[in-house]
Amino acid sequence: MTQTLRSNGGQLSRMRRYRRLAIGAVLAGVAGNLALRTLDFPVAAEVVYIGGFLAFLAIWLGTDVTLFDEREQAIEQRASAATLSITAVIVVFGAATARLFPPLLGTTVPTAVHYALYAFIVQFVLFAGVYGWLRYRP
Amino acid sequence: MKNHVRARRDDVGLSQADLAEAVGVTRQTINAIERERYDPSIELAFKLAAFFDCRIEDLFDPELDAS
What we know:
The structure holds 2 protein chains of 2 kinds. Chain A is mostly helical. Helix content of chain A is 87%, strand content 0%. Chain A is built from 4 helices and no strands. Chain B is mostly helical.
């Protein structure tokens, strides 16, 4: 039992360390971006911003460390599904409401609302594509 | 799912953090399993059973949950 405790203990502390590193890279990228934009270095700001996310991806995908344990991944999946469901309700009722505005109220909804609805629809198209790939891949 | 993880852990005198370290998950995950708010994967169930040197059926009892 003690041997198991030691061997897996290192794995968990490594996960914590890499997770702090990954999240820290993103936060550093965002903080660096804000600071450099304030100092009027727009290009450098975006390089630092993207660099933070690339560092996150490198840690997440480029190492063999699992950043989040299985329960955290399950929570993430449930949250994603719930978000998608909420978005579906917004798209269905939002689109119908937007179409009814002109005939019933004699006015149109702001263009930004239309763009937001289109963005949600694109998200569902993307979801369908990813779902299909996962469902039918060999 | 009903389980005896808490009882087994108490028997060997380990904290949730110790058990979490041993099977490679967070302490919160062990807590959620013990409170029956999260059902572990087969892989984690096997790890827990191996750690306590028992069978999975000795640790988890889905029939109790159904009743």
